[in-house]
Specification:
The complex is a heterodimer of chains A (114) and B (112).
Chain A: E1 3-7, E2 10-14, E3 19-26, E4 31-38, E5 44-50, E6 56-58, E7 64-68, E8 73-78, E9 87-95, E10 103-104, E11 108-113
Chain B: E1 5-7, E2 10-13, E3 19-24, E4 31-37, E5 44-50, E6 53-57, E7 64-68, E8 74-78, E9 87-94, E10 102-103, E11 107-111
């Protein structure tokens, strides 16, 4: 069974500071990995996805994530936080092939302090 | 391109009742997945539909059922509602083989 673990249910950063949201995955087969963002009372929006091409993946809004197989990690980073980045972020994993079931983590709420 | 639209946005039902939630998938997408997101939790996979057939199911009882129509829109039906069914129900569409969902804004179901 595949799963993801998000370290830290709440993360606070100052505006302009580095954003680092941690995610570790568990999968018995090569995974596809995703980060989604959810703003209050809205659905989820795909930030970026890793599908076994380049290990450093660039997404929307200046976010990027690096797939590290040796560490089973897929941490999300952004060099400089903006107030509009305050939201909940979900890491997710899917098996390659088969039907496209995606398994989500419990989420990390990002607070940006002015 | 149109996104994923869900209706209704909010719903209040009484325990024991039945509910139908609707979803129109994004143009060009042929796969629809449904997720339940309880307060403070990540989305939990309910099931997925492709070519009008259930193509995979999570750990949800049979009283959760669905349909996919020829135009790829979908319904989620829940019978015999329980208080624990209160949650945000999210519909997500995708193209078969293209990983990365497009989500709707969800239906907030409250069971009293």
């Amino acid at each position: 069974a595949q799963s993801v673990t998000q370290l830290g249910s709440h993360v606070s950063v100052s505006e302009g500071a580095l954003v680092l949201l941690r995610c570790n995955y568990s999968s018995s087969v090569p995974p596809y990995l995703f980060w989604y963002v959810q703003y209050p009372n809205q659905g989820l929006q795909l930030l970026l996805k890793y599908t076994s091409a380049a290990t450093l993946v660039k997404g929307i809004n200046g976010f990027e994530a690096e797939f590290k197989k040796s560490e089973t990690s897929f941490h999300l980073t952004k060099p400089s936080a903006h107030m509009s980045d305050a939201a909940e972020y979900f890491c997710a994993v899917s098996d390659q092939g088969g039907y496209q079931k995606v398994t989500f983590g419990i989420g990390t709420k990002l607070q940006v302090i002015p | 391109e149109t996104g994923v639209t869900q209706s209704p946005t909010h719903l209040i039902k009484t325990r024991g009742q039945q509910v139908t939630l609707r979803c129109s998938s994004q143009s060009g997408h042929n796969t629809v997945s449904w997720y339940q997101q309880a307060l403070g939790q990540g989305p939990q996979f309910i099931f997925q539909y492709y070519r009008e057939e259930e193509n995979g199911r999570g750990n949800f009882p049979p009283r959760f059922s669905g349909l996919q129509f020829p135009n790829y829109s979908s319904e989620l039906n829940v019978n015999a509602l329980e208080l624990d069914d209160s949650a945000l129900y999210l519909c997500a569409s995708s193209r078969r083989g293209d990983y990365g969902y497009t989500f709707g804004s969800g239906t907030r179901l409250t069971v009293v």
